[in-house]
Amino acid sequence: MDMERTLNYGRGVYTGPPYEFTTSVNNLRRLPRFGHGSDFTTVFSSNLDDQVDYAAGLIALFVFLLIIFIFWTIVIFVFKVMGPENAGFLSGHHFVVPDSLDDDKNVHKRPLRVRVVFLVATGCLMTFAFLFVVMGLTNVNNAATTMGKSLKTTEQLVRNAEQIASNLEQVGTKSIEIRDAAVEELDNLCPNNPNIGDYVGMDIMGIAEQAKSDLTMLADFIADGLAALNEKLALVQSFTASADDATKSVEFWGWEMKLLVAGLFILPSFLAVGVGLVMLDVDVEPYQKALTYFFMPLFAMTTVACFVVCCLILPVSATSADVCSGGGDVRGGPDDTVLTIYRNLLGDNTGLIFQFIGFYTQRCNPEYYPFDFLKTYLDDLDDAVGSTNKAFTAMEDNQGLLEDQCGRGFDDVLNIVDDMNDNLKVLRKQADLSLDLVKCKNINQLYVNTVHEAGCKYSVDALAWIFASSLVISVCGLIMIMLRSSYYPVEYLDISESWDGLNGMGKMQPTRSGSRDSAESVGPVIVREVAHDSGPPPSMIVPETIKVSPSIDGEEFEIGQMEFRMGHA
């Protein structure tokens, strides 16, 4: 592999894919912040006011939604306290309607409409509970799976780097041994004729001194490089282990979530069955009591848990969308967020770390190419390979002459120089393998898979669906709780009989007919107190015709619809 190719790994050879904004990111980043900023990168700025402003926007989102749910819950309690006399069926009691045989269709309109709304809310709730699992939790699983693949790729890169480090360690150990032996041999290369170079026409001693210098440089280079490499590998391994633990700890499909989802399917089913029974004129009083005292309280707790989840997920969803939108004035996606955060933390520092971050996150832009600094080291390495090659060739070609002039054998020297040359070639190969390991295509694909796919696609989609589903489920659940009277039979007041007048307790009580939904009426009968010392009693509406008998002439006659008041005796 030639040096030019090595030094240009990723420089114009590979272009990373651009980030594509998803529908979820576009929708969530438009959430209102009530006058506050939505630039996530300000969290890492030195301006405390900007940090507070961003946090205030998220808190405002959470509080706004929570207030709506709390207010709605208070309204339900207020209706309950008001009772059926003031709040009617909204208090949770059964419907009370006149028992009108002439207008039976109109009498049933309101209960039917309320029950239809209840069933529609039930169907909508169960639909979004299904979407909560299919679209929300499934995307969470996709994000975890994608992150797992990225971690496996990282682990493979680390293993390859460890293998390179092991090879370098072997090369370094051997280089030190060769250097020590070479120094001993080369210091006494030609004892009989120190000016042997002039005799053979080449600077043998200069070549020997260059070889000694190269070997020393090689040993130092390997020692320093191994120390830095091992340190970075330890950091990467620690980060990978932490990320793996974090991924495993994010368990959205634990028993708590399973219990919540089961409640969102099972409890509304029982409530819907109760409504269906009364719509079919089937009155099962024990089942109604079970709905009232067991299933509805459980459903209410499930609804509360759901809107708490909704309120908590909202600011998290907004933050994730902000991260994936970019920072500053240019909204260039998560790639822009990374560089903006770096600039906020370290200013305009364009050192090696900035070049690495920019190169791998900005689609392998040659502007950020970080490996130019290696050119000097690789040039020195190639010079060392060339000088040892030259020394070996010169000594081998003139071995007989050198042995005659120097009065010593050169076999050991040639073996040492040959080993030096082989060792330098191995080191050069490891350098190529190291650059191949960190070439832009490998690292950028890892970055895209982790940030673009797992972080800004599946994770944001999951949060968007969990928020939307939990919001609809909460609204439908509160509607069902408010209209819980739908699973009670209708109470009919029988006003076809004449009033019995005042009873002995000072009460006027109308005759009551049984419910058409049941053999017995359900719920209280409305009565009004009549105070003897508080003015005239309330007016009564009598049937359309009443018979007054007898008249003056002894015949009965009818009086049309009329209203009269009962005064004091």
Which secondary-structure class do the elements indicate? mainly alpha
Number of helices: 15
Helix percent reads 55-70%
Compute the average pLDDT: 77
Instruction: List low-pLDDT spans.
Output: 1-7, 497-569
Give the overall shape, derived from the CA principal axes.
Answer: rod-shaped
Tell me the β content. Answer: under 5%
Characterize the biggest β-sheet: 2 strands, parallel
The arrangement of helices and strands along the chain is HHHEHHHHHHHHHHHHEEEEEEE
Structural key phrases:
569 residues; mainly alpha; two-stranded parallel sheet; two-stranded antiparallel sheet; disordered N terminus
Q: How is this structure best described in words?
A:
The structure is a single chain. The chain is mostly helical. It is 66% helix and 4% strand. The protein contains 15 helices and 8 strands. The protein has helices at 3-7, 23-28, 48-87, 104-107, 109-186, 196-200, 204-249, 255-279, 285-325, 334-346, 352-361, 374-397, 399-406, 411-437, 440-482, and strands at 96-98, 491-493, 507-508, 528-529, 540-541, 546-548, 557-559, 563-564.
What would a concise description of this structure say?
The chain has 569 residues and is mainly alpha-helical. It is 66% helix and 4% strand. The strands form four sheets. The chain has a two-stranded parallel sheet.
